[in-house]
C-alpha cells in the first residue's frame, strides 16, 4: 500500500497582487497611468535590468527613448509646454512602478521634469521645457563635493565672472549620468557670505551645456565604482576653468514648476529637495515591494522538510510584517505628495517619509535576503539587487541623519 503524497492536496500557489490605488487619491486617470507604468516595468524594464545590472552596465538609450514616448519625462511639465501637466503624485506613482523593476530607471525620470530649464530668457525657457518634456533635454546635477555633501552650504566650487562669462573651478562628486547627459547643473559659489549672512549666501546654480557622451572643455570625469544603483554611471568631476555664459546662470534647481523663480538660487532649492525626498520614498517603496513579491513566490516554491517553507509560521509572519511596512510607507508618500500638489510646504512630512520609507526598504530587503537563504546571496535571484539598491536610498537625497535633523529642528529649538 502506497503512502499518500501530502503534496497532492496542496493549495494552488497564490501569485502576488500588486497594490491598487485607493481613495481618497484614486482616479481613473491615475489608475490607468499606474497600470501602464506597471506593464512597462514588467515587460520592458525587468528583462533589461536582469541582464545589465549584474554587468554594471548602462541602460540602453532605446529604453530612455521608450519612456520619452510615454511622456514620462514631462509628467510635471505644464501641457502648454508639451508635458502631461500632472503633479508630484503622478510623478511618484510612475516612479514606484519603475523602481519595482530597476531603481535607476525610476531615477532617470528626475533628469527630465523641467530640470535645466530655469534660464532667464522666457523664449529659451519655453523651448527647453518642450525639449525636456520630449525626453530630449536630460541632465545631471552636480551639487555635492568631496567635503560638502549633506552640508551644501559648504560648497567651495568657485564661479568667477569675466565680462558676460562665468568661469567655474572646483571638484564635484556624485554626479549621476554626467557623461550621458545633455547638460550638468553645477552649484557654485560666486562670493563669500558677508558677516551676518547665511552660509548659503553667494551660492548659485549654473547650466553647463554639453554633447551627450562627452564632457565640456575644462571638465574631466572619473567613474565612481558603486556596489549598486547600476544602469548609469556616477562621476567625480574636476572643473578647471569651465566657461558658462551669463545667460546660463539659473534661477533655481530641479526644474520644479511650482517653485518661486524670484526666490533666489539657493533658497529655491528647498521645494525641489522636498519633491526629491518624496520621490526617493516612492522609489524605496518600489524596491521593497519587489522584495516582498519575490518572497511571496519563493516561500511557495522552496521546499524543506517535505513542505514549502511558506508553511512555517515564522516565515509566514515575517512576510506579513514586510508587506505591512511597505503598505504603510506607500500610504505616507501618497499623502505627502498630495500635500505638495495642494501647495503645502510639507518640509517635515517630506523628511519624515524619506526617512521612514528608506529605512523600511533596508529592513525589508534584508529580511528578503534571509528568507531566500543561500539562494539570496547569489546573482541568480533578483533579491540581492533590491538589497544593494535599497541601501543607497537611506543615503542619497539627504541621509537618514539629515532627515532626523530636519524634523527635530522643527520640533525643538536649534542648538
Attribute tags:
single chain; 415 residues; alpha+beta; Butyryl-Coa Dehydrogenase, subunit A, domain 1; Butyryl-CoA Dehydrogenase, subunit A, domain 2; Butyryl-CoA Dehydrogenase, subunit A, domain 3; 3 domains; 4-stranded antiparallel β-sheet; 10 helices; 42% helix; AcylCo_DH-like_C
Residue-averaged pLDDT, rounded? 92
Give the full name of the CATH homologous superfamily of the largest domain: Butyryl-CoA Dehydrogenase, subunit A, domain 3
Distance between the termini: 80 Å
Strand order of the largest sheet: 2-3-7-6
DSSP helix fraction: 40-55%
Helical element count?
Answer: 10
Helix/strand/pairing category: alpha+beta
Q: What are the low-pLDDT stretches, counting only 5+ consecutive residues below 50?
A: 258-265
Rg value? 23 Å
Order of helices and strands: HHHHHEEEEEEEHEEHHHH
Tell me the CATH topology of the largest domain: Butyryl-CoA Dehydrogenase, subunit A, domain 3
InterPro entries: Acyl-CoA_DH_CS, Acyl-CoA_Oxase/DH_mid-dom, Acyl-CoA_Oxase/DH_mid-dom_sf, AcylCo_DH-like_C, AcylCo_DH/oxidase_C, AcylCoA_DH/ox_N, AcylCoA_DH/ox_N_sf, AcylCoA_DH/oxidase_NM_dom_sf
Keywords: FAD, Flavoprotein, Oxidoreductase
Cofactor: FAD
Protein name: Acyl-CoA dehydrogenase
Amino acid at each position: 500500500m502506497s503512502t499518500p503524497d501530502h503534496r497532492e492536496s496542496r493549495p494552488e500557489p497564490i501569485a502576488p497582487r500588486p497594490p491598487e490605488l485607493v481613495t481618497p487619491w484614486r482616479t481613473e486617470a491615475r489608475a490607468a497611468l499606474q497600470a501602464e507604468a506597471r506593464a512597462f516595468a514588467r515587460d520592458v524594464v525587468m528583462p533589461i535590468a536582469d541582464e545589465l545590472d549584474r554587468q554594471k552596465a548602462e541602460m540602453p538609450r532605446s529604453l530612455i527613448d521608450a519612456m520619452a514616448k510615454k511622456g514620462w519625462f514631462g509628467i510635471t511639465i505644464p501641457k502648454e509646454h508639451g508635458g502631461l501637466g500632472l503633479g508630484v503624485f503622478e510623478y511618484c506613482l510612475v516612479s514606484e512602478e519603475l523602481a519595482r523593476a530597476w531603481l535607476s530607471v525610476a531615477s532617470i525620470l528626475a533628469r527630465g521634469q523641467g530640470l535645466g530649464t530655469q534660464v532667464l530668457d522666457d523664449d529659451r525657457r519655453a523651448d527647453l521645457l518642450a525639449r525636456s518634456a520630449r525626453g530630449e533635454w536630460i541632465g545631471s546635477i552636480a551639487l555635492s563635493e568631496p567635503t560638502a555633501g549633506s552640508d551644501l552650504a559648504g560648497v567651495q566650487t568657485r564661479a568667477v565672472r569675466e565680462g558676460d562669462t562665468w568661469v567655474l573651478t572646483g571638484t564635484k562628486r556624485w554626479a549621476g549620468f554626467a557623461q550621458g547627459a545633455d547638460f550638468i547643473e553645477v552649484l557654485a559659489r560666486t562670493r563669500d557670505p558677508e558677516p551676518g549672512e547665511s552660509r548659503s549666501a553667494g551660492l548659485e546654480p549654473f547650466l553647463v551645456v554639453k554633447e551627450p557622451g562627452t564632457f565640456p572643455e575644462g571638465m574631466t570625469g572619473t567613474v565612481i565604482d558603486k556596489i549598486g544603483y547600476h544602469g548609469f554611471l556616477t562621476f567625480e568631476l574636476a572643473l578647471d576653468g569651465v566657461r558658462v555664459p551669463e545667460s546660463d546662470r539659473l534661477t533655481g534647481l530641479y526644474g520644479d514648476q511650482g517653485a518661486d523663480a524670484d526666490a533666489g538660487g539657493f533658497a529655491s532649492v528647498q521645494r525641489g529637495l522636498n519633491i526629491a525626498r518624496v520621490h526617493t520614498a516612492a522609489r524605496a517603496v518600489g524596491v521593497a515591494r519587489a522584495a516582498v513579491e519575490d518572497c511571496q513566490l519563493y516561500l511557495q516554491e522552496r521546499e524543506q522538510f517535505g513542505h514549502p517553507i511558506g508553511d512555517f509560521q515564522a516565515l509566514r509572519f515575517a512576510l506579513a510584517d514586510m508587506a505591512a511596512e511597505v503598505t504603510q510607507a506607500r500610504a505616507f508618500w501618497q499623502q505627502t505628495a498630495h500635500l505638495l500638489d495642494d501647495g503645502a510646504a510639507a518640509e517635515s512630512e517630506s523628511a519624515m517619509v524619506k526617512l521612514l520609507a528608506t529605512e523600511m526598504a533596508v529592513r525589508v530587503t534584508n529580511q528578503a535576503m534571509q528568507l531566500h537563504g543561500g539562494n539570496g546571496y547569489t546573482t541568480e535571484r533578483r533579491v540581492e539587487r533590491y538589497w544593494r539598491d535599497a541601501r543607497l536610498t537611506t543615503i542619497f537625497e539627504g541621509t537618514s541623519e539629515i532627515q532626523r535633523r530636519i524634523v527635530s529642528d522643527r520640533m525643538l529649538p536649534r542648538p
